[in-house]
Amino acid sequence: MSSTTNGLPGLDSSSAPSVVPLSRWQKIRMVVKVVELRLRFIALMAATGLIFGYWDTIKNHYEKWTRPPGVIHSAASDTEFYCPMHPTVIQPTPGSCPICGMPLSKRKIGEKETLPIGVTARVRLASSRIEQAGVKTVEISYEPLAETITTVGSVVIDERRLKRISSKIRDRVRVESLFVNFTGITVKAGQPLAEVYGPELYQATRELLLAQQRANQPVVASRSELGRTVLGRPDELLNASRQKLVLWGLSDVQIDEILVKGVASTKMPILSPIDGVVVKKNVVEGQYIMEGEAMFEIADLTHVWVQAQIYEDQIDLVRVGQSVEAKVETYPGQIFRGVVAFRDPVLNPQTRTVNVRYDLDNADGRLMPGMFATVTFATPVAETPAFRDLLAHMPAPKDLTRRVSLTVDEQKLCLVTNLKLGSMGDPVAIEIEGKKIWMCCDNCETQLKANPAKFLTRLAGPPKDGVLAVPESAVIDTGTRQIVYVEVEPGVYEGRVVVLGALSGDVYPVLSGLFLGDRVATAGSFLIDAETRLNASPGPVAIPPSGEQPPVAVVPAAVSKTSTHVH
Predict the structure, then answer these.
(1) Virtual torsion, Cα 40, 46, 49, 51, nearest 10 deg
(2) What separation, in Å, do the N-terminal and C-terminal C-alpha atoms of the chain show?
(3) Phi, psi (5° rounding) for residue 356?
């Protein structure tokens, strides 16, 4: 019979392997080996990561250790020469820049480059990097920008065409009849409005008739000259009677009618002095009125005012004579244009606003006093306070395009580099398109002849109402300053601090920092800015001394160094 082991039939207990239990020391060694294996793996991974992370450093140290001794010159100089205009040009010996011809500046090796005033950094990008980042540039130019103010207004009566009809008859008179018995009726000049009665009126017309009778009587020869002087000349009495009725408001036609009829009148019609609309009626039939009391107000509505309110910080943007337009809800899509006719000299202390008005013809009567209007004032940016203040301290720009020959004092700046003539040595004269102009160095001639139209336009003054404008997409606002990257040469971008006006549409007017014809980065500028931060800036941006005027956009580059392009 087969024996069983551990309850399993057919398995002989003598043939089963013996299991020797591990000692405590063996168990400890096994745990240590497992931990050691894992630590080795972790250390291997860490070493691999460090080698990948610091590969460039390890490689540089290796090359330094393995470099042949003959490569190192113990007498090497610690200085180098560079071009301030082209920072990529660096050489160990003095000389001139092969690009612009400017004398090279000296500096210690590793010393940061000193940038021109207003420049924050320069960076060079490879063409593949530019294409990958989608960097795009545009050339800035003059644009007729305008700063607009939109405010609420209303249509009001032209106060110069408003007439008040009052009683001129002495003492009290009674309104006998009313021909205009409600407000809003349209009347014509000379049309009777009412009829009044008064004893004084009857007496005055009776005196007129008596004076006429006396004037028509033949002169008696025996009447002494003294008697005629005491009684008065008949024609003088007649004229005095007529004048009295004229002062009471009767017209010459009404007086002539009384003289023709020969009957003293007890009633006098009140006539409208103008064509218009009765806007006020202060009397009713049977009412007694005193001398000077207003009876009617008539307004000529064929001409109205549009009156708007502007805040005190906008006052300097609105001037008499500038264009203005209004829209009313009654006529959607229709614009009523005009020019500012008057600006109130007094500020309303409650609303902190000033009334501004302009005139509108209203022959068809569509515009009614009391209508609300949306009024828009358009002020050319070149006429805003910021630009006017800058121009006030600078010579008036001149159009030099018609001059055949210019002097250095007239031109002042190089048309290519915008540098002051004489800053890079003696100015160089050149003839192009029949004009004699000046350059800062010989190397500008190639660029000038390659694109003369671009640079010769800088000889002209800015167009009327035109300012240099930079696209909004080109501006990087850091919160404390605004920077625009300019392509100074292919692949080289320069960050410039700019002073901008208020946004006008999708462009900014430039007060300073840029020049006519500069190519600015409108796409990819944030990548360029990131590159300048990764590669430390060559130096802090230089700040001009207090009182020194920064470059100004509205002055042409040929006239002033501070020309910039500009809402």
Answers:
(1) -80
(2) 113
(3) -130, 135
CA angle 375, 379, 384 (to 5 degrees): 135
Amino acid at 410: E
Question: 299-318 burial by CB neighbour count: b if 16+ within 10 A, else e?
Answer: bbbebbbbbbbbeeebbebb
The pTM score is 0.56
User: Can you tell me whether residue 29 is helix, strand or coil?
Assistant: helix
CATH code of the region 136-145+391-534: 2.40.420.20
Residue written as tokens 């005491």?
230
- The count of other CB atoms within 10 Å of the CB of residue 364 is 7
Q: Which value, in Å, is the radius of gyration of the alpha carbons in the chain? A: 48
Look at the domain 161-298 and name its fold. Answer: OB fold (Dihydrolipoamide Acetyltransferase, E2P) (2.40.50)
Separation of alpha carbons 49 and 31, rounded Å:
27
Each of the 567 residues of the chain gets a pLDDT tens digit; together they read: 444 444 444 445 455 556 677 788 888 888 888 888 888 889 888 888 888 888 877 877 776 677 555 444 444 567 788 776 666 678 888 888 777 666 777 777 766 666 667 788 888 888 888 888 888 999 888 888 888 889 999 999 999 999 998 888 877 888 989 999 899 999 999 899 998 887 777 778 888 888 877 777 765 544 555 555 555 677 777 888 888 878 777 777 888 888 888 777 778 888 888 999 999 999 999 899 888 889 999 999 999 999 999 998 888 889 898 889 999 999 998 999 999 999 999 999 999 999 999 999 999 889 999 999 999 998 888 777 777 776 655 444 555 555 566 777 777 777 777 777 776 777 888 888 777 888 877 777 777 777 777 777 777 666 777 788 899 999 998 888 899 999 888 888 888 999 888 888 888 988 888 888 788 999 888 888 887 776 544 444 443 333 333 333 333 333 233 333 333
Domain boundaries, the chain: 76-111, 136-145+391-534, 161-298, 303-379
| Residue 350 token pair | 């409650």
- Report the C-alpha gap between 544 and 526 in whole angstroms: 26
Q: Which residues pair with 82 in a beta bridge?
A: 90, 105
Strand blocks (E) in 98-202: 105-108, 119-124, 136-139, 141-143, 146-157, 162-166, 173-178, 186-187, 192-197
Do domains 136-145+391-534 and 303-379 share one topology? The answer is no
Q: Are 324 and 358 in contact (CB under 8 A)?
A: yes
| Segment (H or E) for 281 | strand 276-281
State phi, psi for 273 to the nearest 5 degrees: -80, -15
In the three-class reduction of DSSP (H, G, I as helix; E, B as strand; rest coil), residue 403 is classed as coil
Place of tokens 């004398």: 103
Class of domain 303-379: mainly beta
Distance CA 100, CA 443 (A): 5
If one counts every other C-beta atom within 10 angstroms of the C-beta of residue 91, the result is 13
Run of H or E including 65: helix 55-66
